[in-house]
Amino acid sequence: MARLRLMGRTQEQTMVTPVGSTLLNAALQLKVDWNYNCSRGTCARCRCQVLEGAEHLNEITDAEWNRMDEEEFEEGYRLSCQAVIESTGDIYAVHRPYFRSWLARG
Ligand code: FES
């Protein structure tokens, strides 16, 4: 089990979750205000920054390499639909899409 803390646009929630879940699935389960669209690594609306516990996630996927820049990975960014919890530990991630203006449209 991993202890996961997620910060959406305005809400932060914490949960204990088994390994195997993506960060996006956990965010949806927690009902955090966390946007997404494709769920397959192309739209990047689910982009987040992992501030703690990146070592508990899977390796960066091909879809992420195709969609994001290396500098983003160095800063801890992942696509939450691609980031799978693989080991026990504490993880803290913040939803940080490229553009926030569309979030306010509801
Ligand atoms: S939901 Fe589209 S990239 Fe994750």
UniProtKB/TrEMBL annotation:
Query: A single Gene Ontology molecular function, please?
Result: iron-sulfur cluster binding
Q: Which Pfam families match?
A: Fer2 (PF00111)
Q: Which residues form the 2Fe-2S ferredoxin-type domain?
A: 2-98
* Originating species: Paenibacillus aquistagni
Could you tell me what this protein is called?
Ferredoxin
Record's InterPro entries? 2Fe-2S_ferredoxin-like_sf, 2Fe-2S_ferredoxin-type, Beta-grasp_dom_sf
